[in-house]
Write a structure and sequence with these properties.
The complex is a heterodimer. By secondary structure, chain A is of the alpha+beta class. Chain A folds into 2 domains: 187 residues, no CATH class; 113 residues, no CATH class. Chain A contains 7 helices and 12 strands. In chain A, the strands form 4 sheets. Chain A has a 6-stranded antiparallel sheet with strand order 3-4-5-6-7-8, covered by helices on one side. Chain A is globular, with a radius of gyration of 20 Å. Chain B is mostly beta strands. Chain B has a domain of 212 residues. Chain B contains 4 helices and 34 strands. Chain B has a 12-stranded parallel sheet, sandwiched between helices. A 12-stranded mixed sheet of chain B has the order 4-7-10-13-16-19-22-25-28-31-33-34. In chain B, strand 1, helix 2 and strand 2 form a beta-alpha-beta unit. Classes of the chains: A alpha+beta, B mainly beta.
Chain lengths: 329, 413
């Protein structure tokens, strides 16, 4: 019975932030307390089924995205009227309190889930919303969910919608929840410029080294392609302030120390994730590298990333394998 | 959360007092969502009370709310069953401070059993973690796995089947591991890259190695030391090593009682270390090549007080073990040193005999060993109680390492 008492926050929030009839983003739902029960409460879309954004909600893409079982991902950023994001060099755009990041996942031609990151006065809050079969409503899925789906390649998977805590596992730096995707280095110059011209960004950030556009990978050298993939798929945990800090593995784009990148680095807590191999990355030997072994596994306790995928990213495997193959032995 | 739940919650909450509450979660249908939701919606100070029975879980669980107690009906009555787990690196992950986990069991997780990371002042009390198929390479790595935390108490727990360490405390400080029963793991208890640890009064048997105190390079926290190992029963750790290759414990010889590697200020006293066929006590340097300039691979200031080191070394799993055994008259002396760093020091009433590999340098292989008998030098540690602002010599142990006393109260009020 008392379990239900915990629902008060939810219930209160759902009442307080009931969406207005017009399609204006509901600032109170973003910045207020509680967890709105439906995605509709935020008013991010004029037509949710087609993902047509409301005024002030801007679509964007990132250069090299996180693999999510081949799901098509639609990303949006919302800034409250009259506010601006601040450029911070290569790093994350500094989005003001009241902002939101919205990411909708689409598989089998249907919307499966929409994840939102809300910038509140006390920090960022991450919430997952699950779409119904009829595509009319997305409801809060605090505890996550599993869906039996097929990838675009036709592979049957048990697709996982992350629970609220799992959202944080990837989004935390020290004790704070932070966005991952919208770093200037992972956004195109064209998009940053248009965002600036729309008055939503204080300056076009000077990016010293931009992550390659994933679609260009066949034309580019192996290292930047692989490092861009590792940055987007691994580095949110594998960095000195992330969930996997204790591994000592740091896969961020800006890292240059070979040991930190796993090259001839022994694992610390890999368990059977080692696959019987001694080093994370063995130059010239992807087949002896723990990194490739774990990327290629689908088994709990072995597969990496630990959450957020139920299938292997074939193109990511090619990119990382090629990078390791080309390393000097 | 279904609308009916929300409506009911609102009605109830209006009447609910503003203090910590007990949130009952019975076993049964839909356990994954109900339990995970309770762990998310708990407020600081709340008790999530797991009913008796088997919770059939499909994914990892996690707790990220400070000051929550998760309490079951007993380590044999409440079982979180992860046999059908599909995702996540562990059964239960705790990432908030001041959490108490007690009186329940976790079985057959795909990865680690219970992990707590950056979770200060955590208490594990009478928790059981078991891989029910016995020792297997395919079992998860660690049973109870606190890491990157200050203030850790693991008390009265039972772990078996871990393919790395049953109880593993890593990159942490102010640690007490006591009154636990660890059996059939590769390492029974491992304290790694950690400081100020007390490992006391545990029953450690049928593991590959009993109690390990390690420091490894290339990690964010290094410089392990100030560890007291006391009052433990370390009996017949003779299970063949089943760790997956590539992990440091895969190199631990079957039959190792206590092993200290690359640590400083370790006191070993009042233990009964019996029937461990390779060595009762092993004091060694980190054996692999490394390039981390901040890392010290050598053991320093390791004190052996009065212990019962009995009937070991009679079936050593070492290169040339049989010849060595014969050369030493049928069994190896109880204390083995690799000859690097400070040798172990005798500080008790019994003068232990040892033998040394006499390795010429860190990283040298067994083929370069020149084994010989070794008489432990005898003197007492200079216990140092640091005064505020005083810079102390790090290599000496302190008299009373361990978790803050406040954690005892949470385990044994």
């Amino acid at each position: 019975m008392r379990l239900l008492a915990g629902g008060i926050l939810l219930a209160a929030a759902a009442v307080a932030v009931a969406a207005p009839q017009g399609r204006v983003v509901n600032d109170a739902a973003i910045a207020g307390a509680g967890f709105p029960a439906t995605l509709d409460a935020f008013g991010f879309f004029t037509n949710a089924a087609t993902q047509r954004p409301a005024a002030g909600v801007t679509p964007y893409r990132i250069q090299t995205p996180l693999w999510s079982d081949g799901a098509e991902k639609l990303r949006f950023v919302y800034l409250p009227a009259g506010t601006k994001a601040k450029a911070q060099g290569d790093g994350l755009l500094d989005l003001p309190v009241g902002s939101a990041l919205i990411k909708t996942f689409k598989l089998e031609g249907r919307l499966t889930e929409t994840r939102v990151l809300l910038h509140r006065a006390e920090g960022w809050v991450a919430l997952p919303y699950q779409w119904n079969r009829e595509q009319t409503e997305a409801r809060l899925a605090l505890a996550g969910a599993r869906l039996e789906l097929k990838t675009p390649q036709g592979q049957a998977i048990s697709y996982a919608i992350p629970n609220k805590n799992q959202c944080k596992e990837c989004h935390q730096q020290q004790d704070a929840v932070v966005p991952i995707g919208p770093k200037a280095r992972n956004l195109s110059l064209a998009w940053l410029t248009s965002f600036y011209k729309a008055g939503k960004l204080d300056a076009v950030p000077q990016v010293s080294a931009r992550v390659p556009l994933w679609e260009d990978r066949a034309k580019l050298a192996a290292a930047p392609v692989a490092r861009g993939w590792l940055d987007s798929n691994c580095a949110h945990c594998h960095n000195p302030a992330g969930s996997a800090s204790n591994s000592g593995l740091d896969l961020r784009w800006e890292q240059s120390d070979p040991i930190a990148l796993g090259i001839n680095k022994r694992p610390v807590a890999a368990g059977r994730g080692s696959g019987g191999f001694e080093f994370d990355v063995v130059p010239g030997h992807p087949d002896k590298s723990i990194m490739v072994y774990r990327m290629g596994s689908l088994e709990g306790g072995i597969s990496m990333p630990e959450v957020g995928r139920a299938s292997v990213d074939p193109d990511g495997m090619v990119a990382v394998t090629k990078w390791i193959e080309e390393m000097k032995r | 959360m279904p609308a009916t739940l929300i409506a009911a919650a609102t009605a109830l909450a209006l009447a609910a007092p503003a203090y910590a509450k007990v949130i009952p979660v019975p076993a049964g249908e839909n356990a994954q969502a109900r339990l995970q939701e309770a762990l998310i919606l708990a407020a600081p100070g709340d008790v999530v009370e797991l009913g008796a029975g088997r919770f059939v879980l499909t994914d990892g669980l996690s707790l990220d709310v400070k000051g929550v107690t998760v309490r079951g009906a007993g380590m044999d009555a409440t079982v979180l069953d992860f046999s059908g787990q599909k995702g996540a690196g562990e059964g239960l992950l705790v990432t908030s401070d001041e959490v108490t986990l007690r009186d329940f069991a976790v079985e057959n997780t795909k990865g680690d059993g219970i992990k707590s990371k950056g979770a200060d002042n955590i208490v594990y009390y009478r928790v059981r973690v078991t891989w029910t198929g016995g020792p297997k390479t395919t079992n998860g790595a660690y049973g109870i796995y606190p890491v990157s935390s200050t203030g850790v108490l693991v008390d009265g727990c039972k772990v078996s089947g871990a393919s790395d360490a049953g109880i593993y405390v890593g990159q942490s400080k102010a640690i007490t591991v006591r009154y636990n029963f660890v059996e059939n793991n590769v390492a029974g208890i491992e304290i790694e890259n950690s400081r100020d640890a007390l490992v006391a009064d545990n029953f450690v048997t049928r593991n590959t190695g009993g109690i390990l105190v390690f420091d490894l390079p290339n990690l964010p926290v290094m410089g392990g030391g100030n560890v007291r190992i006391t009052g433990n029963l370390v009996i017949a750790n003779d299970t063949p090593n089943f760790a997956p290759k590539g992990n440091i414990v895969a190199g631990v010889p079957r039959g190792t009682g206590l092993m200290v590697m690359a640590n400083e200020g370790v006191v070993i006293e009042r233990n009964k270390v019996i029937d461990n066929p390779t060595a009762a006590v092993m004091v060694v340097a980190y054996p692999n090549a490394f390039s981390d300039t901040k890392y010290n691979p050598l053991p320093r200031r390791v004190f052996l007080g009065t212990n019962d080191l009995l009937r070991g070394g009679n079936d050593p799993q070492l290169p040339g073990g049989d010849q060595l055994k014969a050369a030493f008259g049928g069994a190896l002396p109880p204390v083995m040193w690799d000859g690097l760093g400070d040798g172990p020091i005798a500080s008790g009433n019994v003068i232990e005999f040892g033998w040394t590999l006499n390795l010429p340098r860190q990283g040298a292989g067994f083929d370069q060993a020149k084994p010989a008998r070794f008489q432990l030098p005898q003197h007492q540690p200079t216990y140092i109680v640091p005064q505020p602002g005083q810079k102390i010599e790090r290599s000496e142990p302190s008299p009373n390492p361990g978790a803050p006393a406040a954690l005892d109260v949470r385990a044994r009020p």
